[in-house]
């Protein structure tokens, strides 16, 4: 089986760089065996990335590994969980050793950064796609959920919005910023988003709800509204936009991408007035900016977009793979 | 988002039929939250099934759900673990409601049978494929591994071997058994294999090693030999063959499929002489036959196939997706 599936998995993915104490058996048996610490809840999420749909087919494999992991880590961040283990089911059209080397090197670099261990996976032949299963811990009872927001809570986002959509437009040749450094920044924000793990942990006990922005602010905030049975007022002037985005597109395009571009992998969260001070201290220590962009209201109000004090109506929605039919 | 991804997931997969007490939050947030009982190890496995590679493209969706779950449950069985939770990442070329209804009905029927809960997933557009992540428990320190076999231990398999390959050949029009009931039996063995969960649990503390037969007996026993640093003598006359298989193919073909056909999802395990009595009692209670097919030897002996007392050489190996290049 010299060029076979098993030696392929072994060669690129059976690396023992990070050995977590909670892993009894990692790769190499029918299942991985894990010892979960007491008084911790396990947080589990899974995401699939399909070539041509979730990433451009000619993407650099090192970028792809970063992005695939970040997309999944972002779900842990949104629960306030600490990353622990990864499973990787990789479907490849053929065995391309240079590709596998670059992909796995990049993946393990990220796993080591986050003190994570790859505990299992599967390699199959087919059109390029991958499904990651991510597992983390959160202290029992302290997870951030979508359902805890109340009318009156403030609405926040970390970082800046819309950069990822601009980066994608640049990669697709639809946008050419004047300054090369702006283009580089926006492309990096698309290819290598930073999962907000530190921010999610800082928000435990302080945020009343949280979600990560994968489908766009309007779509993802919509999930909080639905789960929490609330409405919201969103102040469009307060949406945090990067200098690079503002330099590269019209204000209207920037707003459009900030609201519905998706793939920002920032956190959107809510917190009651009484936690504002503690929240500023906790988030301040993470070194990443955040912005208050609105306030939760009664469910009957729905989601209202406010510009210069006036309610406005916009047409766009979040990205949805099957909604275009 | 009436016909969108999220309502699609909600409509077919957000069913609350089985509500496990260890599930704090199931489908509907960024992650599922799970409370693992004390003194239990978590067993995790993931498998991908790609249309055209792992199943025929025209497979009945109800059969596909059974097979996909069985393939993953079989990994838990091989560790002696109890099933608990499933994640499902489903990639579909389009939204086919009849297909989704049949697939999800069948999946939930199986999940309820095994007292499992679907805790998360992802639906993406692309060529038909799915990745399941399966999670179960095994009492700490009592998992069956591939690495515990010793020279002198007896080698066993549950059920019968080769039926699944015959069933596949029938579906592909390459085999036409004389009796329709034989054909039906073999096809069912291929489409709806029975994961040996009960047998795996019965073997805790009794078997010295175990693996499930997905790639064929020779390939999978080979993994035990490698992990346990042993050789083995396999008595070809002792391989358990179903009456239906023997009625449908030549003895040589039956042997070939029993050794290397794959997808049987029976357990291959080893046990020391001193456990033979306890093993017969424990397995006897499960109602499924099992057979002793050989004995572990020193690593230097390698894997030796014995027919009528003579070592024989055969050419076939287990199925390996990338080995054919």
Automatic annotation (TrEMBL), chains A, B:
CDD domains: ThiL (cd02194). InterPro entries: PurM-like_C_dom, PurM-like_C_sf, PurM-like_N, PurM-like_N_sf, ThiL-like. Keywords: ATP-binding, Kinase, Magnesium, Metal-binding, Nucleotide-binding, Thiamine biosynthesis, Transferase. Mg(2+) 3 binds at residues 30, 75, 212. Its EC number is 2.7.4.16. It catalyses: thiamine phosphate + ATP = thiamine diphosphate + ADP. Mg(2+) 1 binds at residues 46-47, 122. ATP binds at residues 121-122, 146, 214. Mg(2+) 2 binds at residues 47, 75. The keyword tRNA processing does not apply. It is an enzyme of class 2 (transferase). Mg(2+) 5 binds at residue 215. Mg(2+) 4 binds at residues 30, 45, 75. The keyword Transferase applies. GO terms for biological process: thiamine biosynthetic process; thiamine diphosphate biosynthetic process. Residues 150-300 form the PurM-like C-terminal domain. Residues 28-136 form the PurM-like N-terminal domain. Substrate binds at residues 54, 263, 319. GO terms for molecular function: ATP binding; magnesium ion binding; thiamine-phosphate kinase activity. Pathway: Cofactor biosynthesis; thiamine diphosphate biosynthesis; thiamine diphosphate from thiamine phosphate: step 1/1. NCBIfam families: PRK05731.1-1 (NF004350), thiL (TIGR01379). Catalyzes the ATP-dependent phosphorylation of thiamine-monophosphate (TMP) to form thiamine-pyrophosphate (TPP), the active form of vitamin B1. Reaction mechanism of ThiL seems to utilize a direct, inline transfer of the gamma-phosphate of ATP to TMP rather than a phosphorylated enzyme intermediate. Belongs to the thiamine-monophosphate kinase family. This is Thiamine-monophosphate kinase. It comes from Jejubacter calystegiae.
